[in-house]
Design brief:
alpha/beta; 4-stranded parallel sheet; F-box domain-containing protein; AN11006-like
Length: about 240
Amino acid sequence: MTAGSSSSAASTPSTTLNATAKPVRKLNFAATSLSRSATPTSKMFRALQPAPLSSSDPDYKETPQPKCFYDLPAELRIEIYKLVLSNVTIHILPPKATRRHQVPHALTRTSKQVRAEVLPIVHSTCEIRANVTDFNFDGILDWINRIPPNQLVNLTKNQDLRIRLCTTLDMGNQTADSLRKWLHLRGDRHRPQPNWQYCGPEPEGKVANDLRRRAKRMADQKKRSELVAMIRGLGLRDPPC
């Protein structure tokens, strides 16, 4: 009895443990994503592309790259500029000219690079005409002052520079001051001096006599030579020495 009781008591905990344990769930691997992805489809892979041909392949054709004007050699660009500017005349107007007449060439407004390449050609090859009324040189003085110092030498290469003088009134203090500034610039030995030529109708007697008198009294030889060239361009006789 004792043995039977102990055997029955020993089996009771085992029966209780099995009663409280949860049943084991069987996994259905066929319904999982792993199972679905096990079968490859065409959407799972990127479309394959053929490898690029080697340059040694007989069927190889080089794809042309897009070109722009700046890709051309500098020498070729310069020749194009010269063709465009071959018949261009630069007019330097008085400072009081209306703004609609003061229009720079289109090439100089294209880009900084084109402007830097075009201006030396403009200064050295184009016809340049300056109109000066009553010896007021402010317009041409402003124009020259806008040229960078390292490019002034390009004007000395130009053999087609002309200043047209037109006199309508007596030379007043304002125009006399502008004339002095011009003669001072032309007499500067440290600046490149272009070969400006003067022309214009012969002025009235009073203006002509004033010019010849100024030239006679002028002590600076270079300034005097410039004023004498101006007098000759107006068709007047040389002042007395």
